[in-house]
Fold this protein.
Amino acid sequence: EVHLVESGGGLVKPGGSLRLSCAASGFTFINYSMNWVRQAPGKGLEWVSSISTGSSYIYYADSVKGRFTISRDNARASLYLQMSGLRAEDTAVYYCARSDGGFDYWGQGTLVTVSS
Amino acid sequence: EIVLTQSPGTLSLSPGERATLSCRASQSVSSSYLAWYQQKPGQAPRLLIYGASSRATGIPDRFSGSGSGTDFTLTISRLEPEDFAVYFCQQYGSSPRTFGQGTKLEIK
């Protein structure tokens, strides 16, 4: 069974940094592109970033470009999101999701709160 | 960037009725790379439809997707109590992989 488990969320001050992790299991991680999607409280879904299987292709939303870095470790079946220069508007639940004809599996999410 | 506009914002229907949700794109979605998701409170989204019309694994056949180019539709043929939720469309054919703003399907 496919499982995606995010971790690393928490409370951080504006301008601070945080690193999110997503541990994958139940499938061959190296065969799938992966994504981060966020959802601010009471709002809709916002795609954040995507990374291809071998990390050759990486894409970011304009809202996070230059501040966030996506990466993966295929040996550890893990996905990461390094976030810096955090702003109040980055407050959201962050989900990792697998790409396969849309985003077919999602984690339960980890909450990031940016506040002083 | 492809902007997806969903309508209506809220749809009020009764169990057993038919639901029709719309998703309109600001430009053509390549290769019909259009997906639909269902999200219930406190839960992660669940993939319902991909490729505009293909049902994801385990999705009941009362859910169907149609459309191409810039106009797409999610139809729920006979609403069950568990279908009342928020529905999002998404295009994944180009970057950024944008989502629509969502349609809330509520019990009338």
